[in-house]
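Submission checklist for the structure archive. All mandatory fields must be present; incomplete records are returned to the submitter.

[x] Identifier: Glutaminase
[x] Organism: Roseibium aggregatum
[x] Residue count: 310
[x] Sequence attached
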Amino acid sequence: MQDLLTEIAEVAASDPDRGSVATYIPELAGIDPGQFGIAVATAGGEVFAAGDADTPFSIQSVSKVFALALALGHAGDQLWHRVGREPSGLSFDSVLLLERENGIPRNPFINAGALVATDTYLAGSSPREALGALLRFIRAAADNDSIHINEKVAQSEIATGHRNFSLAHYLASFGNLRNSVDKVLGTYCHQCAVEMTCRQLAMAGRFLVDSPRMPALVSIERRRRINALMMTCGHYDGSGDFAFRVGMPGKSGVGGGILVVSPGRASVAVWSPGLNRYGNSKLGTEAMERFAHRTGWSVFGVPHSGKDLT
Ligand code: DON
């Protein structure tokens, strides 16, 4: 496993085509696209890492996985009255379907659906309390109390988040927000501004790996469902392509991070800030394609070599 990660990091380091860094959140626009990190936390308790695996980055939409777990903890299956479970086939910030589908977002990973999840885990509490619960969840999953929110990134997004505000107002107009638009947006932008390294994110992702050694933060049934949603919706309109190329549940973020789960085996975090046309990490996706090919961990087929790297 270590040799494979080292090789993957070397291939990424020498790739001249690194995609483009997200610029719509000004604080993220200046990130060096030359960076690449990858880490694997196995069900057996081992951690492997290569490249810039200890450099913190903005997890952005990867946070929607933790937010969904928290929202389900608050509302249980009632959440599915307010958000769907189907891929949207549209970009992460699209407003198109929201009008046609009466303010019920297609899934909890597009921005509109994630705003409903944030509204749900906010419940009646203050943003500070809700974000405290979110950080406690992430820190427990990662077994790391140093994980924090980058306030500058959060403020940068609040100041420029016109699309997210419009999505939230749409939701509110259909009665699908219980807290004020400002409160939901403020909490959501802070949630997206959580900073983690690949090593920390791989550790945190273990709560989605079915194994008796993982922290039991969600039930087995819930894990299975979150993984299913990551597979079908975790990469927005690039979800089909990610399933085709990688074949594992994954959640991307515009910071260039991707969290990937191999159920029963391991959690993988990869990060490179340059994005492809879907807004997902270009080199991260390519690295995961190589990783899946070499490990045989696609859920859609057995390893061609018969070897299992864990
Ligand atoms: O709401 C936004 O636009 C960002 N905070 C998160 C979007 C995102 O990460 C999309 N992922 N690829």
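[x] Structure attached
Curator remark: The domain at 63-193 is CATH 3.40.710.10 (Beta-lactamase). Residues 60-61, 92-93, 111, 157, 164, 192, 252-254, 279-280 surround 6-diazenyl-5-OXO-L-norleucine (CB under 6 Å).
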